[in-house]
Amino acid sequence: MMAEHEHKTLMLASDLHRFLLERPQLELQVHSVFETSINLMTDEELLTMAADKRELMPMGFIVDTAELDHYGLQAGDIVIYGQKIFQLPRGIRISLEGAEIRKVSLSETFESESSIDQASLQIIRRKLLESEGGGISDLAALLPETDVIDSPLNIYSKYIKEDLFAFLDALRKKDYVFAADLTERLLGFGPGLTPSGDDFLTGIILFLYYKEADNEFFQKIVTLARQRTTVLSYHMINNAASGKAYESYLSLIRALAGQGQESLETLADRVLRYGASSGSDFLLGVYCAALILYENENTNVAIKKLTVEN
């Protein structure tokens, strides 16, 4: 039987598992504390401890408790890791023994024949227009590649609209150098613990990672993020640049990329529930990246058809 103050880890992210195998002893500092998650910092990484109602995230582990408030942790507290146990203040221990190790990335990139479906894009757009995230997702109504809807914009969307559309135009032209430069205007912008611009860029990066990766482009954004946004956002963007994210985010990418489209609507609803605006802003990024690649795919098909006919 476990001691009164010992808890078990239910799930452990595969990247955190590898990280801890290489570092059998660690001293971590509590960075931030929320009702269902606690972020721990080392010199090089951000680890996330989460309650059992949360889903697994990169560099994260899920503990067998519904809330984390009773741990009494505060920013600046020290947590010691060793012998597969996190030792918290006040005698609380969290054991990793027996935890299920799960991937936080997809096992495959998607081949070109795995195409983006227009009906799927319409589902995502409808979900974005129905959401009330409060970030920048209402810009979906004004995307120039779609049937523009005359809809009022909130203050964040009005402010960032021109810069965001310029960024998308650079992506459309595959001018990744200019697109990366434009991310300076998006990083750190908007409300939330992970600002709207960062959630949007995470959606862009994660979708492109599995459909049309440009690692130099990704790494330039990661470098800028370290300088221009929050610690939480920087690690989120850095994870996306390696194809890592929440399980529901990854499932959404797989479905929208043409694998499992029947679950797309349910997955979009799950993503939209993240944070006040994080889910909707991330979904906007995914949608924009998918829309651009959909246009490119269909342009290439039309060019090939014209070439054959001639």
Structure description:
This protein has 310 residues and is α/β, with parallel strands linked by helices. It has helices at 14-21, 118-130, 155-172, 176-182, 196-211, 215-228, 231-240, 247-256, 264-272, 278-309, and strands spanning 6-13, 25-33, 37-41, 46-50, 60-63, 78-82, 85-87, 93-95, 100-102. A hairpin with a 2-residue loop joins strand 6 (78-82) and strand 7. Helix 2 (118-130) packs antiparallel against helix 10, helix 5 packs parallel to helix 7 (231-240) and helix 8 packs antiparallel against helix 9. The longest helix is centred in the C-terminal third of the chain and has 32 residues, at 278-309. The chain has two domains: 6-102, OB fold (Dihydrolipoamide Acetyltransferase, E2P), CATH 2.40.50; 118-301, no CATH class. The protein has an eight-stranded mixed barrel.
Domain module count: 2
Averaged pLDDT: 90
* Straight-line distance between termini: 77 Å
Placed side by side, the strands forming the largest sheet appear as 1-5-4-3-2-6-7-8
H and E string: EHEEEEEEEEHHHHHHHHH
% residues in beta strands: 5-15%
